[in-house]
Amino acid sequence: MTKIKLPQNIEIKQRHEALEIISGFETKNKYDILDNHQQNILFAYEESGFLWRWFMKRQRKLQVHIVDLEKKDLITIKRDWYFLKPKHEILDENGHVLGKIIQEKIHFIRIKYHIYDAHNQFLFTCEYNLKDFKKFKLKDPKFSYRIAKDGQTLATITRKYGLKQIAISTISDANNLFVDFMDVKDEKKKKLILAAAFALDLHVWER
Asked: Which of 149, 143, 94, 138 is nearest to 116 (CA)?
């Protein structure tokens, strides 16, 4: 059994695939997961079919495996093909359901997920409201999704836009995400929040 305690701050760095940059063709996503000392603690990779990526793009059926340094599964994210509202099933290292991440409604000014535990009990929302755009600063461009419950922010998932990231985003959809678990200590909840970061990357920021 894989036993890893997630640090309170994580960076998810998507690898830049040469084929995608040159051709524009969507390749299988791969990620390095770093702690706040820039040390690799985990890896993640997408599992999907060629035809799904070619025809369905961001709406494709896929799995994302988050693995330790010995390539043993820690978290698996399963998503079926979707039209408007993606649904994700999250599995633990033993293949047991850890929870679900579901976009419940279509909103004009925001994207909002609901996160549930293994017993379908509501835990958090994951949301970015376009009203927060007024807080956007050119000196430190970033967008943060809030993991919240009862109006209280419990964790954040942030995409930062430096000049390097902006330049790369014109030729590839590779992203750098930062997860701050803040006061969340429960490992199962942290795994679900980490899974939510990948759900966002593959839905919101995927081309």
From this structure: 149
Q: Give the whole-angstrom CA distance, residue 91 versus residue 76.
A: 5
Name the residue type at position 183. Answer: D
Q: Is residue 196 exposed (0-12), middle (13-18) or buried (19+ Cβ within 10 Å)?
A: buried
Tokens describing residue 94:
């033993």
Asked if residues 177 and 202 have their Cβ atoms less than 8 Å apart, the reply is no
> Structural domains in the chain?
9-203 (3.20.90)
For 78-88, the pLDDT digits (tens) are 999 998 899 99
User: Cα–Cα distance between 22 and 18 in angstroms, integer?
Assistant: 6
* Entry pTM: 0.85
Could you read off the pLDDT of 166-205 as tens digits, one per residue? 445 544 445 789 999 998 999 999 999 999 999 998 887 6
**What letter does residue 31 receive in the DSSP assignment?**
E
